[in-house]
Design a protein that fits this description.
homotetramer; alpha/beta; Alpha-Beta Plaits; TIM Barrel; 2 domains
Chain lengths: 341, 341, 341, 341
């Protein structure tokens, strides 16, 4: 931490700051300039609040230097995290992995058809929501465990893996037999109790960025899961809220290369939620691959016009097939492949 | 709902839209202008997604007209909600109710001293966190139930009521004997499972606005609690995230009168989190009262410089006393009082 | 400036950074910790870009310490700036000064009536736009100089002062005979050429905060005017853009006390643009006074329903009168007065 | 326009709204539902303010239906706008056009070298600022006309075209002999007087999106230029402000396909300002091409570490060459080419 004192700071002010820094566990180096004193705190105390120093007498400003996350940082595992699944799919390697499927599980027929279409297009994961976070209590809230049974069966028939959202600690245990990846939605990115529990699970997790979260906050939330010992973690950019209302959210494509630099964790893009309208999903999907994504999470529905949720942003099956073909052509330009070589 | 068709929309496009509207339960009134057709959907289907229409062929735009919340709307209870507590305090009446105390429960001495100071200043509620949502897993996470025992004892000795944050469904039951109000924090505003459970509790709830939430989203989250049958609900503006970084958040003072218009629920302001630096808290507290708040939630600590969390935004006890005195003078100008007449 | 090097930074990296700092005019103090080197740059070079250091090899992060504005800083004139006008009105003193009037100058009758109503209510300035920045080229663009003639005449008859918006350098000269204060609108807050010219004028300026501007950016824009030698400058918070769409903008009431701390310049609030709907203007006006504003800028129209622009946010004359009366009662609570003692 | 009345609206309320609609030039169609009246205003009055209706008695909400821009809309020229330049370069056709060069013109040597490097890499335009909008009055403000002379000479020697920023009406005339495209910066996107003047010029303009502007606001600003008769207009996404501070701005890649749908004007991406750090520029450049951009505007400097402005986001010449090669491979996947076939 660094504390820059005001020009008019008294020696008493300076001593108060130094004392508090030492109390927290810092070694303090003092630089005395012509008009200003600067205090550099070296060391790495377990916790401190930089704002505390900002409001102390005589302080101009205070800066945290060490990043507040450790396990999520790229330097913890410079070569990057790879997660290998039972059907041989590797996330975090050369392949850009496609996860697709409907927003909600609605019926056995819908899911089996979806799974066949995803597999045919070259996808490796079937996505689908059995528990749905809906902003209105009057909207469809999901099928629950019976929905997951349907997903598991359809995925097994088509050699796909299952990813589905967990919203609540009490859902973890019952979901375990059915899913290959627990998805944590944007609204739960800072549900710290849920994150902590997922750190104790031995199953991969995909953590989505919150709509108003900074990249540092995403990494701090990742730290909760990693700190529990679960290192099979993926992150996902799925659009942030901005002033633009024509799109549902604004997909921060730059978050993909930035996260790839700052962390060793695989980074996905979700253009369906990112843009919210079907016709723009392919453009953002290709952009995500061009920007270095390790995978894409996309909504596709056998019949989007009849979907019980998010139909407007779900691709038609043919669109998915065509898009994956474009991705296959694009990936090698950035040193990757889609669907395995 | 209203659907405005494009100038070049074909009759087939128009019929598709009408069919889907009827299917959802709308009565459709068609207005045919010189260049444009407008379809007004009258009726109130339980659920529909306006985006679905926005992406249909030939559609220019679609608008939801009915507000998506019912029980939270002002028209449900035009006279406003009043909540009466066992010590006679009424929230939602003429009194602007003061809730104050430290961010975290740290010790018995700290809390008893805080309670005495809050009571002396004219506060009616003791606030304090036993479960703390912290963005870093390495920060102090709270004392849990022993902290609540301390709060209850201190509050009883000083004739105060207890408000404390609940973060997780599993905490509701154990907290019940100790709190008078469950506080739902900004990060949990869209933790819908938690909200639903709190709807089944027979104890008042104070729901804070999320840092990126619109006012409509706050009211939809309120609807989750009300729909469960718990009508003793208060809302709280506590600052939203903006581009300004000098303040911790930006307190949306206008949300106070806007909420007072749109809903019958009492509306609090939390200037401590709203601005995040002690020296600006009084200005925002007075502004909140001037703007019509039903109460204030503020952080005060017997010794802010030694606080385990949020010390930078906690008032000194003397500041609280002085501020409440200013509030007492100000409230009558807007037809209210502080501390009872 | 402070540069924190990465743990793995080489001595060559460190030397490159030191060389560049010295080249820019800094004296460099080096702190070598167990794992990390920190470089403190003391001195105050005329210009440098902190981002340049952030992308250098081996650098973890770089921080600007000195504030980039000088003349606008509170320490330049700790006692605060007072501006005295020819009718005796003082801005920046104990009085909270009221400026009111219609959005646009529409006719002689409208303006004369407005002026009488503003003066009767206790206002000191007549506001009104002769040049209008409109987001659509098809909207009413203002009356120009004839409008200013009308304002001047009406203001002189009622002992008011005139404030009106300047949008373009070429308008400064012709406006000079008519206005007492040049208003710079939010959209022109970073029209640096215009600001620079206004620095050479010997007439007070009121500078509005841009809708996405930080407080530091407001002060940097102020610096352009001050650097030209024009010290009669007022700032104005008028609402920033947030995700909330129910209000036109979100008035950042906290910007008022923050600016009062950071700068010596008088600070106004404009609740009309801040909230955009008439019914909420009084609440935000009172909140602004409670938060320490030196004055208010408000829209009032003799007949808002027929206004050519911004009718929805213009107060009725009676509302203004009533509001100023409330302000008169409120101001003494924060050590001020309205309308002179 | 559509006005939805409240359930409890009286007939007098309804008649007031109808009268005002008729007064503005609408034909009004009334739909009377069981509980609610809806008024559809057909016709296209030159100007009206939808907020005016939102605050009228008995009104629940009011919606503008017609888009407020006409000439900028895709339907005005469905086939898209193509701009042909004297060296044969066509913007808006199949080629994705590269514009590159330094942020600021610094010297003859720097610019000539830059031009050679841009031309060698496959660029068609030389960019460079002679007038610089800087947030601090103490930063380098540009070389002015002598800088433009240097650019013209270098561009002519290398068969490039010149694009440079205009900040002020008074600069238009002197710049005319030197530039092929006038660039309007983000801070001037709503400098309506400047836009209006550029509408009267017979030279292409590239208009950048403001950092907090919606897409509709960009199109309204475009309308100012088009309404003056200048149809040779390009738009440019260059990053918007969000809560993320690790990147300078957040490049809204989705704005590219959205603009391509809504308008006939060519759409550029500026990844240099979009992300602000050199290492991430290639990822965002490729993403922009993948998303359908008609061209890219990028900063490149012969020696970025010594640049007088924006060095941190300027590519090295070799990086530009490599990036353009990747773009050449990528473009055909989305039906385009780079550098001509």
């Amino acid at each position: 931490m660094i504390v820059a004192m005001q020009d008019q700071a008294t020696e008493a002010h300076i001593q108060s700051v130094i004392e508090r820094m030492v109390e927290l566990g810092f070694n303090v180096h003092r630089t005395t300039g012509a008009t200003q004193v600067i205090l550099a705190g070296v060391g790495n105390p377990a916790q401190f609040d930089v704002t505390e120093f900002q409001v102390m007498g005589g302080v101009q400003d205070a800066y945290r230097i060490s990043s507040p996350y450790k396990l999520a940082g790229r330097s913890f595992r410079p070569e990057g995290t790879k997660i290998t699944f039972r059907n041989g799919t590797v996330v975090g390697g050369e392949e850009v992995v496609v996860m697709a499927g409907p927003c909600s599980v609605e019926s056995k027929e819908q899911i089996l058809l979806s799974a066949q279409q995803v597999a045919a297009a070259g996808g490796k994961f079937l996505r689908g929501g059995a528990y749905k976070p809906r902003s209105s209590p009057y909207s469809f809230q999901g099928m629950g465990i019976p929905g997951l049974e349907i997903m598991r069966e359809a995925a097994d028939k088509t050699n796909l893996l299952v990813i589905s959202e967990v919203m609540e600690i009490s859902q973890i245990e019952p979901m375990l037999p059915y899913v290959d990846v627990f998805q944590v939605g944007a609204r739960n990115m800072q549900n710290f109790n849920l994150l902590r529990e997922l750190g104790h699970v031995r199953k991969p997790v995909l953590l989505k960025r919150g709509i108003a979260a900074t990249i540092e906050e995403v990494l701090l939330s990742a730290e909760y899961i990693l700190a529990g010992g679960n290192y099979d973690l993926m992150l996902c950019e799925r659009g942030i809220r901005t002033f633009e209302t024509y799109t549902r959210n604004t997909m921060d494509v730059s978050a993909i290369p930035v996260l790839k630099k700052l962390t060793h964790l695989p980074v996905f893009g979700d253009p369906s939620h990112g843009v919210g309208k079907r016709e723009f999903v392919p453009a953002l999907a290709l952009a995500s691959v061009a920007a270095g994504a390790d995978g894409l999470l996309m909504e596709m529905h056998p019949n989007p016009d009849k979907a019980m949720s998010d139909g407007a942003q779900s691709l038609f099956p043919d669109q998915l097939t065509q898009l994956v073909n474009q991705m296959k052509a694009l990936a090698p330009i950035v040193g990757r492949n889609v669907g395995g070589k």
